[in-house]
Every structure is written in structure tokens, then in C-alpha cells.
Amino acid sequence: MNTITIPDEMELVYSKPETITDTPLHYCPGCTHGVIHRVLMEVVNEMGIAEQTVGVAPVGCSVFAYNYMNIDMQEAAHGRASAVATGIRRVLPEKYVFSYQGDGDLAAIGTAETIHSVNRGENILIVFVNNGIYGMTGGQMAPTTLLGMVTSTTPFGREQSAMGYPIKMTDLVAQLPGAYYVTRQAAYTAATVRKLKKAIEKAFQFQTRKKGTCFIEVVSNCPSGWKMTPIEANDWLEKNMLPMYPLGDLKVPKE
């Protein structure tokens, strides 16, 4: 990492954590994946657990996370991140292990892995980024797509009679006995980013208790997939996504 010299009369108010690489981000303008990466790695850096942390990234927009996170990373097949994370944690029980997954990955092809990993109470953190579509592969409808929401495969909006209802994975997970800490956060304003960081810090701390799975949903935008500017996407998220996926804790362990 390059060393930056700060003149005596200036105060350093921002610095990139050592757990973030110098690789330029490939994400679209306005996408919150980069923000989530930053916050996640800030927590790992501040807790001093970089050498003990392993991340798992599957197919989707998250697939290149290993280019940006300066920790041990493992790529997984589409939908299998929680299964891979389970294996890593069981073989290396002293490690902090997390998966980083999108909604198409976690709530569609990876539904079984997600549900059963949590139901077994695997001692991992699952970070679930929900933007309501398959962002990487063309903006198709995902299980979390809202009713009436226009996507590349629902040009007239999602219809319940033909396509069913949006699935609230976090609500389902919170009911499972193996779930220890379940929360839904966001990263589209400074205030929501601060709350997300606190949630991630709690989740890593809870791993030391070995009491079950921690699950953090991050309600996100997708300006490119939604065909909006970043400002329009954040406004649409607040007005449409949050009523369906309200922010807050769903399951908090007793201290």
C-alpha cells in the first residue's frame, strides 16, 4: 500500500483500510456493492481479524469481491456460497467466515442451501444483498422482485397470478431455530451505512459465541438494472422497496 504524507496543518479524516485492495471497482455508478464492501472490510480491519477471516463469493455481481477484499476469499458456484462457507467453518472452526450473496443467488438457486445452513445453525455470517432483480445477467425478475415491478423478463410488471409473490427470505430465516442474529439494513444514505456497519460488527462478534447463524439483508439499488439514475434509484428504493422490506432487527440474541 502506498504511504500518504499528511501536512501538519491538515487533519486526516478518511483513509482506505488495509483490508481493501487498490483494484478499481467494476460496479456501475450508484451501485451500493462498493459501499457494502468498504463497510464490511472496515469492520474486519478495525476488529483486527483480517488474518482470521475468510469470505465466500458466488456468481453474480458479487463474484469479483475477491478482487477488492484483501483477505482470504473463496469463490463458490451459483447459489452454493452458504454450503461452501459451512465447509470452511467446519474445517477451520477458529476462522471468521462470511458469504456475500445477491438475491438471485441466495433466494433462487441457493434457497435450499440458505435454509438448511441456517436451520442447522452453522456458525457463519450470511450477507444478503437484495436489489430485487438479477443484476449481473440482464435485469431479469428475481424471487424478491416486487409486484408490478418492471424487469427485462416482466416488461409489464410482475403479476402475482403468473409469477407468485415476492419472497421475504429474511423473514423466513428469522423463524428458524438455528438463526441467532437476523437483521435487515441498507446502504443508500450516511445514516443507513452507519447502522449497517454496527450490524456487521455485531455479527462478527456473535460468531465467537458459536450459537448459530448471523444473517444480514442489505436492501440495495440497481441503477443500471432498474434503468434509473443513481438518485432516481435511491428514491425508488425508499418509496417502493422499503415498504416491502422494512429495515430493522428481526431476531436479536439475549445478552
Strand-helix topology:
Layout: H1 33-47, E1 53-57, E2 72-75, H2 81-91, E3 96-102, H3 103-109, H4 111-119, E4 125-130, E5 133-134, E6 140-141, H5 160-163, H6 169-174, E7 179-186, H7 190-207, E8 213-219, H8 223-226, H9 230-244, E9 248-251
Please characterize this protein's 3D structure.
The protein is 35% helix and 18% strand. Helix 1 crosses helix 7 (190-207) and helix 3 (103-109) packs across helix 4 (111-119). It has 255 residues and is an alpha/beta fold. The protein has a 7-stranded mixed sheet, with helices on both faces. The protein has helices at 33-47, 81-91, 103-109, 111-119, 160-163, 169-174, 190-207, 223-226, 230-244; strands at 53-57, 72-75, 96-102, 125-130, 133-134, 140-141, 179-186, 213-219, 248-251. The mean pLDDT is 93. The protein is built from 9 helices and 9 strands. The chain has a single domain, classed as Rossmann fold. The chain starts with 32 loop residues before the first helix and ends with a strand.
Give the gist of this structure.
Helix 1 crosses helix 7 and helix 3 packs across helix 4. Helix content is 35%, strand content 18%. The strands form 2 sheets. The chain has a 7-stranded mixed β-sheet with strand order 2-1-3-4-8-7-9, sandwiched between helices. The protein has a two-stranded antiparallel sheet with strand order 5-6.
